[in-house]
Specification:
The protein is about 70% helix and about 5% strand. It has five helices and two strands.
Length: about 200
């Protein structure tokens, strides 16, 4: 078992134990104490994708992708020029009319062209990998910031409405199945949070 799989399983067990403890605590409370359900559910994936910041983040990433593509095209142009220069140098080196006195200089020239081509090719490849990682990191950072913002909204809503636990409907557990198997429709606060994000939105 890998560390990642072990963490997922243990994390799922921890969440399950927490839910069972909360359920047991609720069962021990006399009927009528809670005016509203104490446990709510929310589709975080839907809320995140519906947030205006998500659209702005996507546009920013698309702009960066366009800039990186332009950079790669510029490097490819330079690489093509070096390739042509290398081909010319190799043709001159293989010319049967080339004097032996000039062969050493032509050999040196071809070797230099080969080194320059290989270095440019490697730089283009490394730059592409670097930009890909930068895009991935930036996308992750943007999403985490948005999730923090939404979690704060959910926390405030839960406190105001006396919810002690809010589960994510879109969460996938260690078994590959959703964390919430069943929920009463009236405790799904997804629409409420979307309404807070966009007051003009119809529930």
């Amino acid at each position: 078992m890998t560390v990642k799989n072990r963490d997922v399983i243990y994390g799922g067990r921890t969440l399950l134990m927490f839910v069972l403890i909360c359920f047991a605590a609720l069962c021990a409370v006399p009927a009528g104490v809670y005016a509203a359900p104490a446990i709510a559910v929310i589709d975080m994936l839907r809320v995140v994708n519906s947030h205006p910041d998500m659209s702005l983040n996507r546009k920013m990433l698309e702009k960066q992708v366009a800039e990186f593509d332009a950079e790669q095209r510029g490097m490819q142009v330079k690489l093509d020029v070096l390739k042509k220069e290398l081909d010319v140098a190799m043709e001159e080196l293989q010319d049967p009319k080339l004097a032996e006195a000039d062969r050493g200089a032509k050999m040196k020239q071809a070797q230099n062209k080969m080194v320059a081509f290989k270095e440019c090719e490697q730089k283009k490849r490394e730059t592409a990998e670097l930009r890909q990682n930068q895009l991935s990191d930036e996308g992750t950072r943007m999403r985490q910031q948005l999730e923090i913002k939404i979690r704060c909204m959910v926390k405030d809503y839960a406190k105001k409405n006396d919810f002690i636990l809010v589960l994510d409907l879109s969460s996938i557990g260690g078994s590959g199945l959703g964390t919430v198997v069943y929920s009463v429709e009236t405790v799904d606060i997804t629409g409420k949070i979307l309404k807070i994000i966009d007051p003009s939105r119809a529930e």
